[in-house]
Structures are given as structure tokens and as C-alpha cells.
What we know:
Blueprint: H1 7-15, E1 23-27, E2 30-33, H2 34-50, E3 58-62, H3 67-79, E4 82-85, H4 92-102, E5 106-109, H5 111-117, E6 126-129, E7 141-143, H6 144-147, E8 165-170, E9 180-184, H7 185-198, E10 206-209, H8 216-220, H9 223-229, E11 232-235, H10 243-252, E12 257-259, H11 262-269, H12 272-279, E13 285-288, H13 295-304, E14 309-314, E15 324-326, E16 340-341, E17 346-350, E18 356-357, E19 360-367, E20 374-375, H14 379-385, E21 391-399, E22 405-410, E23 415-417, E24 420-422, H15 424-432, E25 439-447, E26 451-459, H16 468-477, E27 486-490, H17 504-520
Parallel strand pairs: 1-11, 3-4, 3-5, 5-6, 6-7, 10-11, 10-12, 12-13, 13-14, 26-27
Antiparallel strand pairs: 1-2, 8-9, 9-20, 14-15, 15-16, 17-18, 17-19, 19-21, 21-22, 23-24, 25-26
Helix pairs in contact: 1-2, 1-3, 1-9, 2-3, 7-9, 11-13
Amino acid sequence: MHLARNVFGILDRSASSRYGGRAAFGYPDGDRTFVETRDAALQVAGGLLAAGVGPGDKVAVLMGNRREWVEVFFGLGALGAVCVPVNVLLTGPEIEHVCRDSGARVLVVDEVGARATAQVSLDVDAVVTVGEVPAPPGTRQLLWTDLVAGAALPTDHVGPALSDPFILYYSSGTTGLPKAAVHTHDGVLWNAMGQVQGLGLAPEHRYEVIPSLSWAAGFHNLVLALCWVGGFSQIRPTGGATMERIVEDLEAHSITHVMLVPSLLRELVGRPDLMQRLSDSPLTWIVTGAEPVPRAVIEGVCRGVPGVDVCQGYGLSEFPTITTVLMADEVFDHEGSAGRALPHTDLAIRDADGVVRREGTGELLVRSLATMVGYHERPEQTAEAFRDGWLHTGDLVELDADGFITIVGRTKDMIISGGLNVYPKEIEDVISRLPGVLETAVVGVPHERFGETAVAIVVTDDPDFDATSVERACEESLASYKRPRRTLVRTERLPRNANAKLLKRELRPWAAEQVEQVSTA
């Protein structure tokens, strides 16, 4: 078995090659080789099969980052069952929705997940508990130690087809109940292979996994791609992701690659001591994403850690998880850009007139063999997402003649003031350069004359921050119709979802209320 004929085949390919004895994954209790990981995954697959789970059955997984998560992931891939990651940040009712909507027959849970399942009502055949945790009330409990004590799935097991569903990723539920993006084995393989080629990944690369394995970025940003080529992934336990602790991990495990969300990069810029330690470490590559990163932050990291390439990426749970990348040598010639498509992805935009174009401003469209095949049991939303053969992302971008995209917001974030289009990111870029600004967001609020108008929200820890500095900066850089009509200053951080994306839907009503209070005072 040397071909990556399905997701399990990625692991088996390296285990059956000269990389078999090399460390594939690192955990707090030590490393595991490719062969050890493959054999453990087959043990899990055999246990699930004995418990009544067959090909096509859904298995929900609610665990923090740990060795058993990796073994379940590849075990389900070998068996042909469907993995349903449950976001570790969800509440009890949200967990119930994911299990019910997906039709999960089994839930795998550890102490991290058990915090939210103590009072949930689940209609599953069994709950596999990892560690000393109770099963939710009214469910049949199967201990992890018992699950893996039986016969393993044979190594000559044929396994699922490329076109079979493998994983369901539920959205963060920005509108209504979360829906699941369905990914096949084939799509997952294409996502990984695009990163191998597009990012130049090699066996000597070592990656620190900071995102939760319950998120699409967990397994699908670099981890599977490195597994394919014999590289190494250090699985960091869930929680406590401060830059100081992360730097300690990067040093201890000789990490060369890491993904840091913009909030962590901002923390890093304020710690010259940590940047010096990274300069002295084997780290060579940082990728960041989730939102556009201000140039000042990128410049700060590049100055503080001169030997490390800082790249910006863009992706989505509907895949590819890394759709575009702005490489380190492109950062300063393409300020604010999220880069160009990786080799396995095709991009276009749909403009305001509904015309699909290769250049201009509009909703970003994606074509790739790595995209989802649809939303689970939602044919109408699937058809809407795949109009004209393109996956509609909902992100508003500028696509230039060289294929670089610059994200200007969500299609729903665009502000139309007096009939003119105002793109929040353009204003946010100006404000983010001001001293004392930790975060900023621009949202539209109702306006009697113009329909809506832009309001700037600034997060600062400077008690002497002068809101008029925002007005002055915008006057110098922006046309009058683009300038925010009001600036709201706060110390509370901006709301974000589990993937660190800004939740402007929560900021709009708050901003409107603040403006109304000032107007009526």
C-alpha cells in the first residue's frame, strides 16, 4: 500500500516508505513514528468496527489536541467512516445540534470536551471516553482502553474510495444554525498536495500545530501535507497559547514552520525578547491569516526576526484551507494583499453587475478539486454556493491582473453610503497605523440621509488616546465619502469566532447603539 488512495493512505504511504521509522507526530509524552501512528490508527479502526461503526457512519469527535485525536482521524479514514469534528468552544446546545444534524452514531470525548457535555442530551449509540471522564447522561459508555484492546483493522483492508465523504466541518454559525461542509477523501488529498507543491514542503520541515484539531486549520494546514512527504508535526495541547509559551515550544522542538493568527503576531511585536529568541531558533517560516494583517505588524515581525519569512494566507472551511499565500518576498510590493492562488486553485470575482471576471472588485470565487462537494443535507444552500460552477466565498476582494487578491471585507460588510461603495478595510488600514491602536474595525450603521454611514471602532490600552487622531489620519488619506462619521474608543477586545475571525455582526448593533446614545444625549 504505497499510494495515497484515501486520507489514511497519506499516513500509510510514509509508514511504508523509508520514512516509516521517523517521528511523524510529537506530543507532551513523546514522539510517535509513522509506523506507530499507522498501527495505532488501524487499532482504533478495528475497535470502532467491533463497536458497530461501519463505512459511511458518522463519528463525532470532541477532544482537545492530543495523540488520540490523530489516531481517531486516521482510523476513521482507514475504516471509511465519516469524521465530524466538534468545535471545542461550543456550548451544550450547539454540540447537540452538530451531533443531531450530522446523524453521528458515536461521540468520542475527552476531559476538554466533557466540560460542555455534562448536561447534554445526545441520541447516539455510544460515547467513547478518553481519560477519566464520565459519559453524558443516558448514553452507553465505551472506554478508550477497551476500544483499542481488540483486533486491529487488517493492513490489507481496501478502505474507502476517493469519492467517499470523509469529514464534515461545521461553520461557526454566523447566520442561523451551523451547517456542515462535506469533504471527500479526494478533496482532502488535493488540499494537502496543493500545499506540498505551493509551499515547497519537505521531509526536514517541522511544524508546530497551534490551531485546534477540531477546526479545519488544525489538520489541513500543513499537517497532512507534511505527513505525505515525511515531515513532522508537533501537536500542542489545547489552551494557553500565549506567545511566551509558544516560543518555548518552538525552541524545545526545533520547529521550522508555524501558523500564528494576527493577535499572536501583535503580541510578538511587543516582545523584542521573544523575537530575539526566535531569531536564534531553527524557525524559518511563519504563516498568518484569519484576517488581513496591518503592514505595521508584518514590518515589526520582519525587523525583529530577520531570518524568518512571514507569509500571509487566506483559506476557508469549505476548502482549500490555504487558498492563497503572499510569500515573504512579495509582502512589501503587495501591501495588504493575501497573495496568489496555490497551484491547485483557480480564482475569479463576481462584480456588482453579477459578471464573473478575472480582474476587478467583487465576491471572490474559487474553483478547485479541493473544495467541499456541498453542505450536508442542504441542497438549496449547496446550489447557491456553487452557482456557475464556482464556489462563492462571501468575501469581497480586489483581484489584480497578476492574480493577487486583497480582501476588502465580506460581501455583507460593504457599506453603501449615499449610493457610494465604502470598503471597511481601506479605512481600517489607515487607522491601524496610528500609535496606540491595538485593533480596529469599521462598520456601517443606519443613517437617515445616506442610508448608512461608516463608524470606526478603535481598541486601545492608552488612556490618553485621542480620537481626533483618527479623523486627522482619514482626512489625509481618504476621500470625504470614505471617512468614518464617528470614532468609538474602547478597551474591550473585538469579538471573534473560534477561528479568530472578526464578528462584525456583533459590532454593528453595538456601534449603532453607541451612536444613538451620543445623538440623543
